[in-house]
């Protein structure tokens, strides 16, 4: 008799060319991820060759019950680290039957910005540092913390090792390898300042692909924590008090910034970002005011400040960039629950298309 694990790990290629495609989309809250699977007749590597599909938008908060059909448009393909073989994960965005993007489809507007010739010519690179917190499932309290109590103060936990300081490494490492398998340009992981909090980095990736990769990396993380019986939180300040919040620092450069004289281009871009500070903050994640307090390596939410090697600034420029006169900068304002489609396209629009 086969065990459940044997059946879950069946290699379909032994006796069939058919594959399973997991269609993935962002749900009605703007942060929840949904997915469902379908059988295809054979391997597919081009998203334009995949069929569109539909779902009940009234059950995801994205359509009324009397007109509930929402159409999924496949946009990016990744290898499936759970089913493996030729099976795939498919990042989709959502449209009405008439072909209009639904209000929660933030990818469509981002794609238009990234398709602008002035943006394309600058080849924008993004590196996104996604922080998150692992929670004990039934009590929603950070992994490794005593239930109803607190660990020792921050200090020993950042990039730490040891059973009394590092909690959830098996989940983190499984996620790291699964993302590499999927084809995500994940560039690293580390334990964060608050115990039970971790970070993974995606990039450098060009244009809208950075956001597709972050969403799929989030999806894979939620699937792994589901298996482990742990909850992942993207709340920007999961524990009140003297504990670090969770952000999604977004590193950014353009072709002009990476070339000789790029530091002057960087300073002009930062000046533009400062002029639109309020607009950016309003789009950088829910609950960010609980995180951007001017403490715990943040700038106050109402203040725009930039500096070299300053982790208490809104925008940080690295020492290497200053020294070499070219490179990139880091927008430290986005919250961990930000929509990368909104954040990356807004940074490109403000720095490359907007004229004050």
From TrEMBL:
Reaction equations catalysed: L-glutamate + NH4(+) + ATP = L-glutamine + ADP + phosphate + H(+)
GO cellular component, one term: cytoplasm
Keyword check for Ligase: yes
Listed SMART domains: Gln-synt_C
PROSITE patterns noted in UniProt: GLNA_1 (PS00180), GLNA_ATP (PS00181), GS_BETA_GRASP (PS51986), GS_CATALYTIC (PS51987)
Keyword presence, Nucleotide-binding: yes
UniProt-recorded Gene Ontology molecular function terms: ATP binding; glutamine synthetase activity
Annotated GS catalytic domain residues: 106-356
Superkingdom to which the source organism belongs: Eukaryota
SUPFAM superfamilies the record matches: Glutamine synthetase, N-terminal domain, Glutamine synthetase/guanido kinase
Documented EC number(s): 6.3.1.2
Family: Belongs to the glutamine synthetase family.
Name listed for the protein in its UniProt record: Glutamine synthetase
Organism annotation: Arabidopsis arenosa
């Amino acid at each position: 008799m086969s065990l459940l694990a044997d059946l879950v790990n069946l290699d379909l290629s032994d006796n069939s060319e058919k594959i399973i495609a997991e269609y993935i989309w962002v749900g009605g809250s703007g942060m929840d991820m949904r997915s469902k699977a379908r059988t295809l007749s054979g391997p597919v590597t081009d998203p334009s060759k995949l069929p569109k599909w539909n779902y009940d938008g009234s059950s995801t908060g994205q359509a009324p019950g009397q007109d509930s059909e929402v159409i999924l448009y496949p946009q990016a393909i990744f290898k499936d680290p759970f089913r493996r073989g030729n099976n795939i994960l498919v990042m989709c965005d959502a449209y009405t039957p008439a072909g209009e993007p639904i209000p929660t489809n933030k990818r469509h507007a981002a794609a238009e910005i990234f398709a602008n010739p002035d943006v394309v010519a600058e080849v924008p690179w993004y590196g996104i540092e996604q922080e998150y917190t692992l929670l004990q499932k039934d009590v929603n309290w950070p992994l490794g913390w005593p239930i109803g109590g607190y660990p020792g103060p921050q200090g020993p936990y950042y990039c730490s090792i040891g059973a009394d300081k590092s909690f959830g490494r098996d989940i983190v490492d499984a996620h790291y390898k699964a993302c590499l398998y999927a084809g995500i340009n994940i560039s690293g992981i580390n334990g964060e300042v608050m115990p039970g909090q971790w970070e993974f980095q995606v990039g450098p990736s060009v244009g809208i692909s950075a956001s597709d990769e972050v969403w799929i990396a989030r999806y894979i993380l939620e699937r792994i924590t589901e298996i482990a019986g742990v909850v992942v939180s993207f709340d920007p300040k999961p524990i009140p008090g003297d504990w670090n919040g969770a952000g999604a620092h977004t590193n950014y450069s353009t072709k002009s910034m990476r070339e000789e004289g790029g530091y002057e281009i960087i300073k002009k871009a930062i000046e533009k970002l400062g002029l639109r500070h309020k607009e950016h903050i309003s789009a950088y994640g829910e609950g960010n005011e609980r995180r951007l307090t001017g403490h715990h390596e943040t700038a106050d939410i109402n203040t725009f400040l930039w500096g070299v090697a300053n982790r208490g600034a809104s925008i940080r420029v690295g020492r290497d960039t200053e020294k070499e006169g070219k490179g990139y900068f880091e927008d430290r304002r986005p919250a961990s629950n930000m929509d990368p489609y909104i954040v990356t396209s807004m940074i490109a629009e403000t720095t490359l298309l907007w004229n004050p």
